[in-house]
From TrEMBL:
This is Spermidine/putrescine ABC transporter. One of its GO terms (biological process) is putrescine transport. It comes from Xaviernesmea oryzae. Belongs to the ABC transporter superfamily. The lineage of its organism: Bacteria, Pseudomonadati, Pseudomonadota, Alphaproteobacteria, Hyphomicrobiales. Keywords: ATP-binding, Nucleotide-binding, Transport. GO terms for cellular component: ATP-binding cassette (ABC) transporter complex. Residues 5-235 form the ABC transporter domain. InterPro entries: AAA+_ATPase (IPR003593), ABC_SmlMolc_Importer (IPR050093), ABC_transporter-like_ATP-bd (IPR003439), ABC_transporter-like_CS (IPR017871), Mo/tungstate-bd_C_term_dom (IPR008995), P-loop_NTPase (IPR027417), Transp-assoc_OB_typ2 (IPR013611).
Length: 361
């Protein structure tokens, strides 16, 4: 796939604060790309630079090989759907959607046809004459989307477009983004702090932290090969244990935690003294007997979560992990203090460099 947007060594500083700190990123034409990160990580700043609403302090931004730093926002092949929508409240739905096309000189039947196509695309046929004030929150989101799509941009920027919607609408709109992406073939760049949104929609995504990209990958790789403890925590692998020591055995690395030894998947890159052992909850099994168990831990609590129950299990040193079991299994009602044998599926435990944990969402 051709590279649509090439971001080279981009830094954006506000005085001493580096909102972006040496970002290198190539976004492919036609892909659904997501910038994921918690508040203040720099994702909106990066989107603004791509849209042409701001300039980098250092570095270059190329669109299809052409430097666009001096190209103003309205001359870029980009449309943006902002979090705060910025619809004109005194105009009808159709006037809002047709506004940009009118500025381009379109009028009459041609304008009307384009607006109607856009309304069909976001599944609001016939809503053109309605006032914006008469539309629900989710319908307004779709109008904002239609207004951007009607311009047929090669690149669509979506800045937290689902914030403020209830769960049902979020899911509906999320499906809509996926469908529109397939139908339009445009490059979509989504900014979000919601990992479900990112995972379900993205061809590739970048997790950002303090102005840097911690990992850039296809979604599945963030679970299979998280780059560090920050990334692991961000995608929900939130059991991170501090090992007493790491030992090299003939069959690979092992970590010693609370006096027990765990087999580790070989780590990526170099690791320091701050390395942590991440445990994937989906790769733990509570086993039938103590014979042949990889670990024996003590139940310190259970949390009912509907179809599944979290069983909290502690090591002798007080560190704990979570095993997820079906709520109708006997393990879901294990008594506090029970000794539980666990088996670890391959790659259940991995050694990661310790960047700490992300703040709670
Ligand atoms: N105009 C500005 N002046 C000074 N600092 C700024 C400005 N804009 C952003 N920053 C700082 O740059 C950093 C990144 O901000 P940015 O808005 O890109 O974060 P974000 O990841 O989009 O966060 P959020 O999800 O809260 O919008 C923050 O520390 C922020 O305080």
């Amino acid at each position: 796939m051709a590279i649509a947007i090439d971001i080279q060594s981009v830094t954006r500083a506000y005085g001493p604060i580096k909102a972006l700190d040496g970002i290198d990123l190539a976004i492919k034409a036609g892909e659904f790309f997501t910038l994921l990160g918690s508040s203040g990580c720099g994702k909106s700043t990066l989107l603004k630079l791509i849209g042409g609403f701001d300039r980098p302090t250092k570095g270059r931004i190329l669109f299809e090989g052409r430097d666009v730093i001096d190209v103003p926002a309205n001359k870029r092949p980009v449309n943006t759907v902002f979090q705060n929508l910025a619809l004109f409240p005194h105009m009808t739905v159709a006037e809002n959607i047709g506004y940009g096309l009118k500025l381009r000189g379109l009028s009459g039947a041609a304008l009307k046809a384009k607006v109607e196509d856009a309304l069909d695309l976001v599944e609001l046929p016939g809503f053109g004459p309605r006032g914006i004030a008469m539309m629900s929150g989710g319908q307004r989101q779709r109008v904002a989307l239609a207004r951007a799509l009607v311009m047929e941009p090669g690149i669509l920027l979506l800045d937290e477009p689902l914030t403020g919607l209830d769960e049902r609408l979020r899911q509906q709109m999320r499906d809509e983004f996926g469908r529109l992406h397939r139908r339009t073939g445009a490059t979509f760049i989504l900014v979000t702090h919601n990992q479900d949104e990112a995972l379900s929609l993205s061809d590739r995504m970048a997790i950002m932290h303090q102005g840097r990209i911690e990992q850039l990958d296809v979604p599945a790789q963030f679970f299979a090969r998280p780059a560090n403890s920050f990334v692991a925590g961000f995608v929900g692998i939130d059991t991170l244990l501090k090992p007493e020591r790491i030992e090299q055995h003939s069959d690979g690395l092992r970590a010693v935690i609370g006096g027990q030894s765990l087999r580790l998947r070989s780590p990526m890159g170099s690791l320091g003294d701050d390395s942590l052992v991440a445990i994937r909850p989906d790769r733990l099994r509570i086993s039938e007997s103590l014979d042949g168990a990889d670990l024996v831990l003590t139940v310190v609590g259970t949390t009912f979560r509907g179809l599944q129950t979290d069983v909290h299990l502690a090591f002798a040193d007080g560190q704990s992990l979570v095993a997820v079991v079906s709520s109708d299994s006997p393990s879901a009602t294990l008594a506090h203090g029970a000794r539980v044998p666990l088996s670890l599926l391959p790659d259940a435990a991995m050694l990661l460099s310790g960047l700490g944990m992300p703040p709670a969402a």
